[in-house]
Design goal:
The protein is an all-alpha fold. The protein has one domain. The protein has helices at residues 4-16, 21-34, 43-48, 50-68, 71-83, 88-93, 99-102, 108-121, 129-150, 155-163, 174-182, 185-188, 191-206.
């Protein structure tokens, strides 16, 4: 069952956080200029430091969402950076994905995570149907977990019940976006990416066991 009281407390904490904007922007600029560094993942090391990794990837997703003003990009960037996956062209491709084109549909905390699952669990062989089916099953399980944690999967519903407490689709107009920003929506909306990446990273790490 979704703990809305705990979510509201976390949202309030995000609204009051002091963001180190220069440091976050510098990290993003470095990734944009040099690309996402590839990593040789050490299974034993990752399993031994699981909680530290989950905390780091959650914090970074919250930061990236705030700076990029894009939950799908912030989610994917935090995960891809952590596990050395993909490239910045994928982040660029996620530009229209918050709420699926700003329509209030599926949250970017989900879509950004699913992109990463494709990179990690998917196969380079387009005819590898087993890998495809396995990735889809992992995605479905992840989405069920996300909905259990956040209460919803749709952006508009999350904003109404968790983030702002009233119905608002920031993507529908400039006025709506301005209202969203004035109500600290970008700060507060770090919650779904943070939850999404923590769950997604846990799926990836647990698959290494």
């Amino acid at each position: 069952m979704t703990d809305y009281a705990a979510l509201k407390k976390r949202v309030d904490e995000l609204a009051e956080r002091v963001w180190d904007v220069p440091a976050i922007e510098a990290r993003i600029k470095k990734l944009s200029a040099g690309g996402i560094p590839k990593k040789k993942l050490n299974r034993d090391e990752i399993l031994a430091n699981k909680e530290q990794i989950l905390d780091r990837v959650q914090w970074r997703a919250e930061e990236y969402n705030f700076i990029l003003k894009n939950c799908a990009q912030g989610t994917a960037l935090a995960l891809m950076e952590e596990f050395g996956l993909g490239n910045m062209e994928i982040i660029k491709a996620l530009t229209p994905f918050p709420g699926i084109g700003g329509t209030g549909e599926i949250c970017g905390g989900i879509t950004g995570s699913l992109i990463t699952f494709g990179l990690y669990f998917g196969s380079d062989d387009r005819l590898d149907y087993e890998a495809m089916n396995n990735t889809i099953m992992i995605a479905q399980k992840f989405m069920a977990f996300f909905e259990g944690e956040v209460g919803h999967m749709y952006c508009a519903d999350i904003i109404e019940t968790v983030i702002l407490g009233h119905r608002l689709n920031p993507g529908e107009s400039e006025e709506a976006m301005e209202t969203f920003s004035m109500e600290k929506g970008f700060e507060k909306c770090g919650l779904p990416p943070g939850i999404g990446v923590r769950l997604a990273a846990e799926f990836i790490i647990d698959s290494m066991k």
